[in-house]
Amino acid sequence: MERILVINPNSSQVVTDGIDKAMEPLRMTGGPAIECVTLKEGPPGIETQAHVEQVVAPIGSMVKSRDNDCSAFVIACYSDPGLHAAREITAKPVLGIAECGILTALTLGQRFGVISILRKSIPRHLRYVGQMGLSDRMAGDRAIGLGVAELSNEATTFARMAEVAAELRDEDGADVLIMGCAGMARYRDRLSRHVGLPVVEPSQAAVSMAIGRSRLGWSA
User: Fold this and answer.
1) 3-state secondary structure (DSSP) of residue 206
2) Does the domain formed by 3-97+203-216 have CATH 3.40.630.10?
3) pLDDT tens digits for 37-61?
4) At 167, is the secondary structure helix, strand, or coil?
5) Fewest beta carbons less than 10 Å away: which of 6, 36, 44, 191?
6) Domain 99-201 belongs to what architecture?
7) Do residues 167 and 142 touch, judged by C-beta distance below 8 A?
8) Are the CB atoms for 204 and 109 separated by under 8 Å?
9) How far apart are CA 77 and CA 120, in angstroms?
């Protein structure tokens, strides 16, 4: 049976549960199984460059250990930690949610805005967009000022996301938004209705691509 392994590189089971719930629309009869797992060796949240580098080796170990029973892998962190290292380990497709989220946003609008968790996340995001050669398509990147552990407070989180989404739309000119953290997954539908723009949940974007890659037999 085809199986897509979605790896949450932080140790927060709440985040993994949110990602797993976001996968429901993509689970279908005859389609690949979608398994979401927590990297127990990871920090509670991937919030710094040090956190990104800390999880590269454990992600690689997990990919290697599951290579025989998975048809594709998704790294469910918006910093795409260990993405290229993992691609050297397996011939199966390995997809990062930031890369896939951005590529999906390009098909939904002209200029995308990113909703980040913390201000210190923004330089990492800007470097990545620059490496992809897409800086001209980025309207802005704004932080809600909440860490991963705080995202479970629904009232506070949604209020801040709605405020930042409106700023990206009205002040920066974004016509499509990307959630800059897998821990935001539960808020996509509500936020899209509130702000009146397409909102990309990047774990869904990456798994959608992984399904296509898996079904078509495309390797890395």
Assistant:
1) helix
2) no
3) 999 999 988 888 999 999 999 999 9
4) helix
5) 44
6) 3-Layer(aba) Sandwich (3.40)
7) yes
8) no
9) 15
